[in-house]
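User: Some background: our group keeps a shared notebook of sequences we're curious about, and every so often someone picks one and asks for a predicted structure to add to the entry. Today it's my turn. The entry only has the sequence so far, pasted here. Could you supply the structure so I can complete it?
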Amino acid sequence: MSDLKRTIVPLKDGWTFVKEGEESAVCLPHTWNAKDGQDGGNDYYRGTCRYVQKLKRPEVPEDACIFLEIAGAAMSARVFWDGELLASHRGGYSAFRVDLTGRLSGEERELCIEVDNSDNTDVYPQKADFTFYGGLYREVSLIVVPAVHFDLSYCGAPGIKVTPVVDLAEKKAVVTVETWQVGEGDVTVSVDGQSKTVTPENGCGSAEFTIEKVHLWDGVDDPYLYTARASLASGDEVCARFGCRAFEIDPQRGFLLNGRNYPLRGVSRHQDCRGVGPALAPEHHRRDMELILEIGANTLRLAHYQHAQEFYDLCDENGIIVWAEIPYITMHMKDGRENTLTQMEELIAQCYNHPSIVVWGLSNEITAASPVNDDLLENHRLLNELCHKMDKTRLTTMANVFMLETDSPILDIPDVNSYNLYFGWYLGELSQNDEFFDEFHRKYPDRPIGFSEYGAHANPQFQSPAPEKNDYTEGYQALYHEHMLAMIEARPWLWATHVWNMFDFAADGRDEGGKHGENQKGLVTFDRQTKKDAFYLYKAAWNKAPMVHICGRRYAERPEAVTEIKVYSNAEAVTLYVDGVPVETKQAARIFRFDVPINGVHTIEARAGGLSDTIEVRRSDEMNKDYVFVKKQDVVNWFDQDDFDPDCFSVSDTLAELQANPKAGAVVNELMAKAAASRGDVASAVKDNPGLQRMMGRMTLIGLLKQAGNVDGESVKQLNRILQGIRK
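Assistant: Of course. Here's the predicted structure to add to the notebook entry:
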């Protein structure tokens, strides 16, 4: 057969979805957890469902080969043809293919894809702070190719691999194009107007090209893409876009792109949206990218799994530098080693050609609920070796949980490391983030270190004139990020920093901050409709386009006689107008604060460089209760009480002191377990982590209760009465 072009036949419509014996008609992409995976309670359906469709052979020549491509089936899948098991796949985020050649005829036959997201012990992820949606949530297609065709059987890979190596001094690139094919015949490869015909050996062909005066892929400034094409006489053709870039990660200078300092400053992204989960259409991906570009980020950590190829394409096109990783997360499973290696192999095979990707992530917070033992270390060594065997052009990294000791042997395995730190939210004070990195950099000046997660929850409903830690206000999130941004800018040796998270996302086990089933650390709400104030802080820092934004627009009713008006802008000066009258001009760097007396309804306007932003505030008699997550009461200083018995325990004792006593320990352990449960599966799983216990053990119980932010004074008094009944 000749002249048959590769044809993609989408299988979007006509599916029967079967869940617990009940049938319904669905279109793909589809998830069965779009609602129950986002409403809290940690009770979303995790089990096995089936997608069934009647298929017959498309009108193609007799010797055509036909493959079924499934771009994402969460979390494991089995493919049946008229009841016969054809293939299995274990991993919910990578593509896989099934050879249907010779099975399709003019008569309808039954295709059944059985998908399972139930709990198990050998397919990652199983313990993490996000919902494990089930379903065929990405596209399913038929791929029709000639008998002699580029290989479709290996790891969902495209059959073409492009490796550019840039010589910055000579301003040229040597580009190696490898292809794999089924059947005999020469392959013709073209790059940048050059063509070569090669004869494959054992199905593998390789051609090398030199691009003089190479046009670099230069991040967000100039993300130039070349295209490599390979064709066979049969008519089959594949192509791959690629970029020519050189990068380096230096422990003192941070990240360098094409020989120049290029600090990676950006965000992380989960792939789900409110109401649709991960079953995203192209417009969802584009909307996310538009928001990421608006904030001015130049890097993305695509957590915690392989994302859709459409989104990696968007990163390539827009110059976003990517950290790509597998869902080896939170808890090491002794039966899961093979699955980590398979998922990494698929990630690299499918994503190798994307110039946006610079590092492969081995794991995320894997020591949170697991000890650093020989099995865990060996798993990471094997992953690291696999990455370097498959890809000699990129580096490996890890996102380490904040309680992992910096002298742990696991940090020696990847090429570079990053830490997830939440001082100033879950534990401790904001300044501890500064201290941690300074201490690491002092002790290990030859080790690159990055900041892979940092964030604070914010429900835009909650507002305060005096935001504080754990009040879930939009204002505290903004203050938190003001500190973190300044901390990062003072440490240019941080090779990459990623806000956790760009968008709120589903974590069905969470119940906090006035929301059920959501992690609200995003700079943008789950539905992508509300940009929180902290979003504009980063926009002022990272986006070069002029901007001005008044914070606190949702804090409309204000009981204070003099209120703070805070403005974020990248202009040198901002003038504030109240009811149309200019009241003050300030010069500052990014954050402008004004004290404004209010006694009624006022229109507040900020002007900067021809731009303006306006909000309305009004004086109220008292604080609007809808703005407050929990009405807090003053906490008693127990040492001021006449009846305080120093020979008995109290809330002013440290957690370690209390836990050392069986009776007092039982009281506080029950309290801590309940607090952890409200923050989801991961918090419950990590509460016994030795490193976390050491950190918390140094804090007083009253300090921990204050930090929790949702304990009233009477409850604290009752708890203290109980502890005062237990002698030391």
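Suggested note for the entry: The CA atoms of residues 163 and 392 lie 9 Å apart. The domain at 557-627 is CATH 2.60.40.10 (Immunoglobulin-like).
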